C-alpha cells in the first residue's frame, strides 16, 4: 500500500506543561492547569490528547499568556505518513513566526 504524506497541526500543551514542571520542580497536572488558568479540566485533557478539531482563540491566548509564549510556539506542524490507520508522526516542525 502506498504511503500518503500530509501535515497536521498539533499543539504543544503537554510538552509545555512538562517543561514548566521541570523548570519549577513541580508537576503541572490537568487539575493544576485548570485551577491556574481557568480553563475547564476536560478541555485541557482534550488539548493534551490532541483531540481538538477547532482551536478556540481565547483558550490558546490563555495558554500562551500562562506559558509566556507566542502562538507560533504553541503549535507545531507535523509531517505524517498515512497508511490506512492514520499513520504516525515522523517530523515535528515548528510553525514559522508571523509578523
What does the model show?
Strand 2 and strand 3 form a beta hairpin. Helix 2 (30-37) packs across helix 3 (41-48). The protein has helices at 13-24, 30-37, 41-48, 57-67, 71-74; strands at residues 4-11, 75-82, 88-94. It starts with a strand and ends in a 5-residue tail after the last strand. With 99 residues, the chain is an alpha+beta fold. It has a single domain (4-86), classed as lambda repressor-like DNA-binding domains (434 Repressor (Amino-terminal Domain), Orthogonal Bundle). Mean pLDDT is 86; it is low at 84-91. It has a three-stranded antiparallel β-sheet with strand order 1-2-3. Helix content is 43%, strand content 23%.
What keywords describe this structure?
single chain; 99 residues; alpha+beta; 434 Repressor (Amino-terminal Domain); three-stranded antiparallel β-sheet; 5 helices; 43% helix; 23% strand; globular
Quick take:
The protein has 99 residues and is α+β, with helices and mostly antiparallel strands.
